[in-house]
Amino acid sequence: AHVVNADFVKSSVRPDDCPRDGLPEFALVGRSNVGKSSLLNSLVRRKRLALTSKKPGKTQCINHFKVNDSWYLVDLPGYGYASAPQEARTNWDEFTRNYFLSRENLVSVFLLIDASIPAKKIDLDYASWLGQNKVPMTLVFTKCDKRKKKKNGGRRPEENVETFQGLIREYFEAAPPWIMTSSVTNQGRDEILLHMSQLRNY
Ligand code: GTP
Ligand code: MG
């Protein structure tokens, strides 16, 4: 499960433009600013392979990164970014949903959920859509290093994680696998890489 090398391959604006070599891939999806690009960097132990930002809306395309010359991590734009123009949001929604349903070499979608705040409706809706469409999914809780704050609902990450799982249970036949992570402490990094290697069968 060790990452030896990782390279940026290409940015695509449509599923049709994505690499066609059929290598297994894992997509990172989640609300804008949830930490998709940061998690990718943590997984491959690089600071700035994928670009990150304090401001939501940083990642704008489907970005393919090849790991160990044999599989892909895919960084996607976030959903739920209220300041993006409506047209851009509709576009995003269309191309990612299209990509999830049609991409044959997509092994599993990694849905990232911010564990430092209570469940958001848009995340529950997204999980529900993936579950109902039977898209293979793994739940990744991010920002588990952040301690509880009154303004964040005053709950610990563990409590938010448990509540979220309870709320999505009805959308899945079996509860999806889940992993708690932090891109600051690298919590969960080895667990994710091991899980990905098991899903690839090597
Ligand atoms: P978009 O590309 O806009 O959809 O965002 P993204 O999901 O790729 O988020 P990104 O990785 O750019 O991170 C957003 C902000 O959250 C940055 O300021 C990160 O430093 C911060 N962040 C990401 N992961 C963590 C984490 O595990 N812990 C903490 N404390 N901050 C994090
Ligand atoms: Mg990003």
UniProtKB/TrEMBL annotation:
Alphabetized UniProt keyword annotations: Cell cycle, Cell division, GTP-binding, Magnesium, Metal-binding, Nucleotide-binding, Septation
GO biological process: cell division
Domain of life: Eukaryota
All residue ranges annotated as the EngB-type G domain in the record: 22-202
Cofactor(s) listed in the protein's UniProt record: Mg(2+)
The keyword Metal-binding appears for this protein: yes
A GO MF term: GTP binding
Transmembrane segments: none
UniProt family annotation: Belongs to the TRAFAC class TrmE-Era-EngA-EngB-Septin-like GTPase superfamily. EngB GTPase family.
Name this polypeptide is given: EngB-type G domain-containing protein
Species, as recorded: Digitaria exilis
High-level lineage: Eukaryota, Viridiplantae, Streptophyta, Embryophyta, Tracheophyta
